[in-house]
Design goal:
With 253 residues, the chain is of the alpha+beta class. The protein has helices at 46-63, 99-105, 134-139, 145-168, 216-219, 225-236; strands at residues 6-9, 13-17, 23-28, 31-34, 39-42, 70-73, 78-82, 85-86, 89-96, 112-122, 131-132, 171-185, 188-194, 202-206. Bound molecules: cytidine-5'-monophosphate (C5P). The site of cytidine-5'-monophosphate (C5P) has 14 residues, from β9, α2, β12 and β14.
Length: 253
């Protein structure tokens, strides 16, 4: 990986300088972390699956006009993306109570919410990404009121798309997180979906059985994470039958 300049290394991905100005190469690692990296493991093949799945979701979003950072997949673990300035917020959409919401409000996981609810966390690992009210976001200048309105609209469009796609393959989209970036074209700036969309950042439950097909499998020791992600990819037709096995990356054109 020494062949190009590393721009940023996160918990599950690394960003390298791209071939052209305004582009980056996003490399998906096999590393899994939870509880603010207190729990860690390497899950063979996870990076390959998430690269494919994020490509699939971002491509679908582009087709329905939801702007995002994806340009093209380069190989098993890498994709070319637009360089953006990440807004320091995690945008979470919830359709059913689960995770921190269920805990905070004493709700049973799986309780249907009256409508999709959008919430924001401040992206700061040292603080454990605390939930923040919109008043803080504007007051501290992390985003303007217009940005907030745009982010909520983007997040709800992603939710409609993802819920529909998942429903079509027998999976309930419980909640998910996206990150949003500022993309500059000359003087013009717009907000686009960035980072990744994968089972690392969604809660996905099988509609029939309730089986969890997302990172909760790792967080809660519910079985083999790669099996769960492979099942999502298989249902979506994302992993071609004759593809090399995850964990044995090979370059493809
Ligand atoms: O933990 P919590 O219930 O707040 O998570 C809501 C959703 O956001 C889940 O789908 C979870 O996977 C995702 N999330 C994430 N990264 C974080 C926090 C939450 O992808 N740092």
């Amino acid at each position: 990986m020494a062949r190009r300049k590393k721009i940023y290394e996160g918990k599950a991905k690394t960003l390298y300088e791209g071939p052209e100005p305004g582009t980056l190469v996003q490399y998906f690692k096999d590393d899994a972390t939870a509880f603010n990296a207190e729990k860690r493991a390497t899950i063979e093949g996870k990076g390959v699956l998430n690269n494919r799945l994020s490509e699939f979701f971002m491509t679908g979003l582009s087709q329905i006009g939801v702007p995002n950072h994806f340009l093209k997949r380069l190989n098993m673990r890498e994709q070319l993306i637009r360089a953006v300035e990440i807004v320091p917020l995690e945008v979470i959409v919830r359709n059913y109570a689960a995770g921190t919401m269920a805990k905070r409000l004493g709700m049973e996981e799986g309780t249907v919410l009256p409508r999709p609810l959008v919430e924001f966390s401040y992206k700061n690992d040292d603080l454990g990404d605390p939930l923040v009210p919109e008043e803080y976001i504007i007051g501290f200048g992390w985003a303007s009121q217009q940005d907030l309105d745009d982010m909520i609209a983007l997040a709800l469009r992603v939710n409609d798309f993802m819920s529909g796609v998942m429903y079509g393959v027998g999976i309930k989209l419980i909640d998910f997180k996206i990150e949003i970036g500022r993309h500059y074209e000359g003087d013009f700036q717009r907000l686009i979906v960035a980072d990744e969309i994968s089972p690392d950042s969604c809660r996905l439950w099988d509609i029939e059985t309730g089986r969890k097909l997302d990172k909760d499998v790792f967080r809660r020791d519910l079985g083999d994470l790669a099996d769960a992600y492979t099942e999502v990819a298989r249902r979506l037709g994302v992993m071609p039958q004759n593809n090399p096995q995850p964990g044995k990356p090979q370059l493809i054109n």
